[in-house]
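Practice problem 4.
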C-alpha cells in the first residue's frame, strides 16, 4: 500500500484535517477542514542556487523563466531570496581571508539605478598577484569620502598595500595616502597617455602636427618596459630640447615631470604592473552582465546584486591564465587568499 505524504496547514498547523483537492502543473492544492482554507504545495524541485548563478552570469529574468518554466516574478523572488542568504563580501573576507599580496589595482565602475537621478558607482579593487577581490562598496560618486570609506575596510582587515595602481583620480590618491601613508601610488601609463592624446587632439585630427611628439611620448611610457631614473630623465630632456618652443608641448612635458614619482613608483617592487588593464578587464566583464539587467530598481537591490556577483567571481576558478599568472589556472581567487587550515563554505 502506497504512502501519501502529509502536509501541515500553514494557517492552523493541522495535519490530519488536510486533504488533497486538485493539481495544476507542478503545484498541488490542498484543503484544510479545520480552518476551511486552501494552500498550494509545489512538488517540483528547483535548483535555486543554479538559478542565481545563471542570473549572475548575465541571464535576464525572462530568459531564466523560459529556461526553468516559471513566471519571471517567481524567478525574481528566488534570486532575491538567494542573494539575501549570501554573506556580506567584506565580512566574509575578514572572517576567512588574510593572505593578500602587497600590490592592488583600484577603480570605479558606474551603473544605472532607476530610482536615482544620477548613476552610482561600484568602488572595488583586485589583488594583482592573487586575483581576489577583498573589499567593495557602492557609492553615489568617486569623491574623497567614498574612497576614504572604501580604504577604511582595508584597515579593518589589517591589509596594508605596498603599491597601489590606479588612474589619475585625485580623490582616490588622497584617500589612499591618508589611510596608508607609506603606500606607493603608480599612475596607469595608459590613462596618462590617453590624457595627453586628448590634450593634443591626435585622435580627432588626422593631420595633427603633434603626432610625432605623441609617438615619442608613447616610446617613453611603454607598458612593456621599465626605465631607470637616468634613462627616463634623458628621454624627457631630448623632448624638451626639440619641443620647448611649443607652449602646449612644454606644458605636457612639465606635467610629466610633475608626475614622474608616480610614473616610476614601480621601482624596487618585483612584478609591479604599469597599467590597470586587469581591473579594466573586470569592468568590461561586469558591463556585459549589467547590459542584460539594464538597470537596478533600487540602491538596496544594487548592493545585493553586486555583493552576489563579487562573491561568485571570487569562487569561480580561473581557466585561461597564462604567462606570469599560469600558477592561478584551476584555482579560485578566494582559495589563494584564504587563511591556512580554514575550510571555505560553498555558496555556488
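Answer key:
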Amino acid at each position: 500500500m502506497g504512502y501519501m505524504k502529509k502536509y501541515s496547514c500553514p494557517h492552523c498547523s493541522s495535519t490530519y484535517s488536510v486533504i488533497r483537492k486538485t493539481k495544476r502543473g507542478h503545484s498541488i492544492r490542498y484543503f484544510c477542514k479545520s480552518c476551511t482554507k486552501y494552500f498550494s504545495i509545489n512538488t517540483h524541485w528547483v535548483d535555486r542556487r543554479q538559478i542565481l548563478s545563471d542570473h549572475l552570469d548575465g541571464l535576464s529574468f525572462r530568459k531564466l523563466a523560459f529556461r526553468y518554466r516559471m513566471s519571471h516574478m517567481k524567478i525574481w523572488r528566488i534570486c532575491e531570496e538567494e542573494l539575501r542568504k549570501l554573506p556580506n563580501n567584506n565580512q566574509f573576507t575578514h572572517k576567512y581571508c588574510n593572505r593578500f599580496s602587497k600590490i592592488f589595482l583600484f577603480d570605479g565602475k558606474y551603473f544605472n539605478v532607476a530610482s536615482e537621478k544620477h548613476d552610482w558607482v561600484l568602488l572595488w579593487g583586485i589583488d594583482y598577484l592573487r586575483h581576489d577581490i577583498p573589499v567593495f562598496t557602492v557609492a553615489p560618486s568617486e569623491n574623497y569620502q567614498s574612497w576614504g570609506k572604501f580604504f577604511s575596510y582595508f584597515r579593518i582587515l589589517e591589509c596594508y598595500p605596498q603599491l597601489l595602481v590606479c588612474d589619475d583620480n585625485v580623490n582616490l590618491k588622497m584617500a589612499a595616502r591618508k589611510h596608508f601613508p607609506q603606500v606607493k601610488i603608480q599612475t596607469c601609463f595608459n590613462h596618462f597617455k590617453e590624457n595627453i592624446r586628448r590634450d593634443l587632439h591626435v585622435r580627432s585630427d588626422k593631420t595633427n602636427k603633434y603626432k610625432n611628439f605623441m609617438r615619442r611620448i608613447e616610446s617613453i611610457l611603454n607598458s612593456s618596459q621599465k626605465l631607470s631614473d637616468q634613462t627616463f630623465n634623458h628621454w624627457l630632456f631630448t623632448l624638451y630640447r626639440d619641443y620647448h618652443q611649443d607652449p602646449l608641448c612644454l606644458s605636457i612635458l612639465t606635467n610629466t615631470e610633475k608626475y614622474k614619482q608616480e610614473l616610476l613608483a614601480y621601482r624596487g617592487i618585483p612584478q609591479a604592473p604599469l597599467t590597470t588593464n586587469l581591473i579594466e578587464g573586470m569592468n568590461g566583464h561586469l558591463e556585459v552582465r549589467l547590459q542584460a539587467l539594464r538597470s537596478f530598481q533600487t540602491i538596496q537591490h544594487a548592493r545585493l546584486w553586486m555583493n552576489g556577483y563579487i562573491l561568485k567571481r571570487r569562487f569561480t576558478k580561473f581557466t585561461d591564465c597564462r604567462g606570469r599568472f599560469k600558477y592561478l589556472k584551476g584555482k579560485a581567487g578566494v582559495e589563494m587568499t584564504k587563511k591556512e587550515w580554514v575550510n571555505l563554505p560553498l555558496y555556488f
